[in-house]
Amino acid sequence: MSREWTENQKRAIKARGHQCLISAAAGSGKTAVLTERVIRKLKSGVSIKNMLILTFTNNAAHEMKDRIRRAIKKACLEKMFV
Questions:
Q1: Which of 20, 37, 74, 79 has the largest CB neighbor count within 10 A?
Q2: Is the dihedral of CA 42, 44, 45, 46 positive or negative?
Q3: Would you put residue 62 in left (φ > 0), alpha (ψ -120 to 50) or beta?
Q4: How far apart are CA 54 and CA 24, in angstroms?
């Protein structure tokens, strides 16, 4: 993604070696941050099968799934799932 991240968003995206809880107000960029984390992890060789990404509503889950799928296509990472 080509966007400007806040310092808190950058810390959440770059956090490694432990679980990460992203909690913020609606419209604050949580889904964008989580999508960026997934793409970076995929690029570093982590299998999507080793990731657990939770949301609190079905609508949020569908939105996140859609955004991650689009980001995977944009980053040309589809071959990892064949």
A1: 37
A2: negative
A3: alpha
A4: 14
Total Cβ atoms within 10 A of residue 66? 12
DSSP 37-59: HHHHHHHTT--GGG-----SSHH
Amino acid at 51: M
Collapsing DSSP to helix, strand or coil, 15 comes out as: coil
pLDDT tier for residue 10 given thresholds of 50, 70 and 90 = very high
Give the up-direction half-sphere exposure of residue 30: CA atoms within 13 A in the CB hemisphere. Answer: 16
Q: Is the pTM above the cut of 0.90?
A: no
Q: What is the pLDDT of residues 35-75, one digit of tens each?
A: 999 999 999 999 999 999 888 899 999 999 999 999 999 99
